[in-house]
Give the backbone structure.
Amino acid sequence: MPEKHLSSQFDSELNSVSSRVMELGGLVESQIRNAIYALSNFSTEVADQVIATEDSVDTMEVEIDHELSSIIARRQPTARDLRLLIAISKATANLERVGDEAEKVARMVKSIIQSGTARSLPSSELRVSAEKASGMLRKALDSFARLDVQAAVAVLKEDDFIDREFDGFVRKLVTYMIEDPRTISACLDLLFLAKAIERIGDHAKNIAELIIYIVKGTDVRHTSIEQIESAVK
């Protein structure tokens, strides 16, 4: 990920911490895949695997942050390198939160399995949004590894799809609850799942924004896609 530096040791340290972030990203991606499988197949066993993985995700976040703090303290990096290290720290935090959302999905799937009430509701529709969110994260990580600004902008554009899917699903659940109040509890469970999936997309978007921050030195949070496209030209 990082460019070459005069200090080969510094360059090695940057490559090492960057590789750790990619490793964390891969671990979190596996959590999402398993969470989607657990949701699609109502698998308690796979849901338990997702929950068990969360400890490893948390441990890796702490280790990466410690490594970053050590690099900053010892190397006193220049402005661009400092942006990179700050962005890596923020990306790590976003990945850990993606793991949290995957764990939430797994725990809710277990709750749904135990209740048995949500099987007749449109839980399968969540799989499409979940797979889209997972794909966004994968593309964001790939863009981060290559510091590819244009690929990052493409990821930002995909977030609108997730948001539209979430809004449409909420409207559908409201209809179910109005037509049959007995479904309210199950619909609320599905709403919780949908929100967790939407948040995964948000964290992928955050990582994409960090790429632009690293390369261009511009903070594009809370900025329209048109303004972002203009900023990266």
Remarks:
- The chain has one domain: 8-232.
- The CA atoms of residues 47 and 106 lie 5 Å apart.
- The chain has seven helices and no strands.
- The radius of gyration is 19 Å.
